[in-house]
Amino acid sequence: MITVWGRKTSSNVQALMWCIGELSLPFTRYDIGHKYGGNDTSEFLSMNPNGKVPVIKDGDGEPIWETGATLRYLANRYAKSSPFWPEDLETRTHIDKWAEWSKINVALNFTVPIFWQMVRTVPQHQNQLEIEKAINNLNNILDIAETQLRKHQFIAGDHFTLADIQFGHTLYRYFDLKINHPKHSALIKYYNELTERPAFKEHVMISYEELRVI
Ligand SMILES: N[C@@H](CCC(=O)N[C@@H](CS)C(=O)NCC(=O)O)C(=O)O
């Protein structure tokens, strides 16, 4: 049994929960963080000194934090030898490369400069010029995903892998926001297919209204 500490409106928790769903793992999840609090207690900080979610424990195991590490742990423990996280080092590293690319280039260039600015910042403090610049920057990065997805069904190739979790979980909010979405036809097809996956529907396509500042 996997225990998860983290509110379901956290994008990092969503990536983790989507992975848990795709791997059909039993779990218990506690709402922690943001309006639920609980991430500043000594009990929580003894698990994760950063006070951030998600944190997981597998049975009585050590707490694991940093979303990328939790995903790799689950994949190593429960999806070894599957196309999701193959044993072959070269194939796995190719997937890991796209997972890392997604976290650093897509998720980080979306969450704070775009999502936080548009949803979690009061309008009088929003910097429209900076938001526009951030959207253009992200859309340029997504050109790379578009090129990849014109050649392959998934972000790291022809199978659904851990890289799709790190890449795809950001797309629900990206497409939901009323911003300029270029005609990335392969990316849009890919996203539409993700929205048909039950675990994506359940864990990623979640309202973010509780995060809105007004
Ligand atoms: N690098 C960490 C970042 C974790 C993080 O920033 N989590 C956010 C939610 S997405 C958080 O805990 N925010 C404080 C809160 O929810 O109260 C990871 O990848 O897990």
From TrEMBL:
It holds the Pfam family GST_N. SUPFAM superfamilies: GST C-terminal domain-like, Thioredoxin-like. Residues 1-82 form the GST N-terminal domain. Residues 88-214 form the GST C-terminal domain. Gene3D superfamilies: 1.20.1050.10, Glutaredoxin. It comes from the Bacteria. Keywords: Transferase. GO terms for molecular function: transferase activity. PANTHER family: DISULFIDE-BOND OXIDOREDUCTASE YFCG (PTHR44051:SF19), GLUTATHIONE S-TRANSFERASE-RELATED (PTHR44051). Belongs to the GST superfamily. This is Glutathione S-transferase protein. It comes from Xenorhabdus szentirmaii DSM 16338. The lineage of its organism: Bacteria, Pseudomonadati, Pseudomonadota, Gammaproteobacteria, Enterobacterales.
